[in-house]
Amino acid sequence: DTGLVTLDYGYLNTGSTKSAITYVNGEKGILRYRGYSIEDLAEKATFPETAWLLIYGELPNQEQLSHFRTLLTENALLHENLLHFFREMPPGAHPMGILSSVVNAVGLFTPRFYDDENIASAFELTTAGLISKIRTIAAFAYKASIGEPFVYPEAERSYCSNFLNMMFSSKTRPYHPDPIMEKALNTLLIVHADHEQNCSTSTVRMVGSSQANLYASICAGICALWGPLHGGANQAVLETLLRIQQSGMTIEQVMAKAKDKNDPFRLSGFGHRVYKSYDPRAKVLKKLMYQVFEREHVHDPLLDVAIKLEEAALKDDYFVERKLYPNVDFYSGILYRAMGIPTNMLTVMFAIGRLPGWIAHWKEMHDDPQSKINRPRQIYTGKTERAWIDRDKR
Ligand code: SDX
Q1: Distance of alpha carbon 116 from alpha carbon 164, whole angstroms
Q2: Residue pLDDT, tens place only, 60-95
Q3: Predicted interface score ipTM higher than 0.90
Q4: Residues with CB under 6 A from ligand 1
Q5: Ligand 1: distance of its center to the CA of 244 in Å?
Q6: Which pLDDT belongs to residue 115?
Q7: Active site (annotated) includes residue 329
Q8: Nearby residues of 382 by Cβ (< 8 Å), 6 or more positions away
Q9: What is the pTM (predicted TM-score) of this model?
Q10: Among the four residues 46, 95, 220, 252, which has the most C-beta atoms within 10 Å?
Q11: Nearest CA to 101 among 138, 150, 127?
């Protein structure tokens, strides 16, 4: 009843975006940040170095890195008024909801850098502040959820050591720096740092294109990442592995459930919009996981379940035909669990890693003088024009 509608495809926003930040080749399983391979960065870089590379386009020299480290240290604290957010949230509030709220609120306590006569240094300060504070927000949300006092950032600690200390130390339980876990956290944050036009990054670009400020744009990105089809998948992976372990569900039953079209269950940690081959980040994390477990002399039975699940999927016709391979979320949860990070904090960890990527895309868009407000068009499938019908005739 819609009749024939002629469409001018020229007006449709194809949604494709030009960007010089990250290159992904889904068929070959290639991922590069500003031309550097994810394998090289995961092995040799620090997360602050990677953040600088993504945002400013080059690896920082010693002076730039030292300056950035100073900004991260000096801007790790939250305005004390913000601590009410953590105390007044309902018990069991999901930390992604707290993170998105407090990130937006940080902007209310920070002078808008548009008003600053030196925008470049104001931008540098704002982004370093966000990258630093997101750790504090995450750790305070966790501490509030377990009823423990907040542990404040310390000047002499590295980016990762500061986060783990804020999460796990207390007056009666000092945190002993564990270089293996700190290196593992550094690698995890690097492999999550950017991934071209994924759902949450596209959301940051969409919101930022209206000239909304950086905090509001990042808040929107956090909310998009929360979904179980995107960043929420790492939490869903662990929940699936725990369900298999605790319910006695067999691998075969899980695979059958994942393939059942009448069942909304999907095997989280598998499949990808772009990778139709093994996600290179999953390869990095699988190798790191074995290293960590070997050196820490720990063994998590969930790892056995994960390995069996991967083996079953990689030889299952349904998964092979659809090119469903493990993605970045499949092993990350097991590694974070080995650090003691609770399941409901896993997507927050993804957000901490992804923040520099979001900022880099927001900056790239704002630096482009041709940039316009994003306004996708549609293919209209509704009714053609109709005459009004009086109420007594409906
Ligand atoms: C991230 O985009 C990015 O870059 C994202 C990300 C990043 O760094 O930002 O890489 C991070 O989000 C990784 C993905 C995390 N999500 C999950 O692991 C959730 C589980 N995965 C699926 O929901 C799914 O694979 C998606 C959402 C990731 C991709 O969905 P698509 O593109 O709709 O999958 P598709 O259309 O290519 O699927 C083809 C077929 C379909 O079946 P048929 O209609 O052909 O019969 O494969 C099926 C799908 O139903 N399928 C799955 C499946 N993934 C796809 N079936 C069972 N389990 C799965 N995991």
Answers
A1: 34
A2: 999 999 999 999 999 999 999 999 999 999 989 999
A3: yes
A4: 195, 198, 229-230, 233, 258, 266-274, 322, 324, 327-329
A5: 21
A6: 53
A7: yes
A8: 2
A9: 0.93
A10: 95
A11: 138
